[in-house]
Here is the input.
Amino acid sequence: MAIRTEEQLIAFVQETVRLTPVTDIHTHLFAESFGDLLLWGVDDLLTYHYLIAEMFRFRPDLSYDDFWRMSKTERADLIWQTLFIDHSPYSEACRGVVTVLNRLGFDLSTRDLESYRAYFREVQASDYIDRILELAGVKTVVMTNDPFDDYERERWSGGGSTDPRFLAALRIDPLLNGWDSAYMKLQQQGYAVTQDFSGDTAAEVRRFLHDWIGRMNPLYMAVSLPNDFAYPEPSLRGRVIDECILPVAEEAGIPFALMIGVKRKVNPSLKDAGDSLGYSDIGAVERIVSGHPNVKFLVTMLSRENQHELAVTARKNRNLLIFGCWWFLNNPSLIEEITRMRLELLGGSVIPQHSDCRVLDQLLYKWDHSRTIIAKVLGDKYTDLLRAGWRLEEDEIRRDVEGLLGGAFWTFLGKPDPSAK
Ligand code: FIX
Ligand code: ZN
Here is the structure.
């Protein structure tokens, strides 16, 4: 059916974006079979590392050690008191908790954390996963799976994920960012590698990657990289990329996902909350992507200042799909700016957002908040088209939104969306 008026257009875009199920291409969530690796519930929500960093800003009197000695419940109590009772929770991470509690139907007027906790004591993980995915409109979740983590590796020996809604991504940070300890872990797993990368090391790393690809069936291999990431580089990281990851990505036909721009542990006392960001050299992305046209690359960058050049780089390289407003960019003002710019430069050949959820419940807020902005930007773009005389059909808008919320990802992978009817 054709769209006739701007009011009809805006209402239709908002409704379509709200109702179209999402493929969430990067999260830190796990299927139920991974047991306590899956975080969920109000105490995990409140102890999210984004909120830990924010709480410490208001508590100069509190020592880091005292905080880390507390139990999870005590930490959650402290964060609730500091960020929600002593101050108004309008930072994006705090507002996220409010959105989640509201969407779960809790009475926010009581501000009674104990009464919210009572609900979580009664509910079963499997029912809760169903409820959250349904409420969030998320059909597929891509996990972050670390074969260097002993605890997670055991879960894979037990079969991994049998839930078709949770798909794997092979995360290989230690190979690229910590070879001096990674090589020992590889040895423990039976691979004949050496610290100086001599002999059969490259072949053995490739064997390791192929073995894990066989075990996990990952949609892609992924790494986060520091802001001074360089390519090509006469370094161990450069060799691992050239001799191991790129050939395996090509042979296995899966993309290499690069998440660039992290400065890890600028404040180690904050643990996971102690990482920061820095501007990166887009030249490294240009060279790796254009030098390997037969490898697919998924790239996100952490610095706001890299976003425009990253989108232009994607225009030049069809083997590059850019994704998400990552971490410190996952704020409404920046999501709007970046999404607008990307749609203007790339049309629908982009993945505007991923959630990066660490706690299942966060799917509710990350997607609610992002959907609102994506709908706003898309509404503006279609309005411009309507005013320019383009006739818009509802089916075409539906098609476009499906692309942005997951279709473009599956097309890029060259795989059918497993949840498609
Ligand atoms: O490296 C990553 O995948 C990052 O997203 C995380 O490590 C980070 O701590 C995070 O949770 C960001 O949202
Ligand atoms: Zn992440």
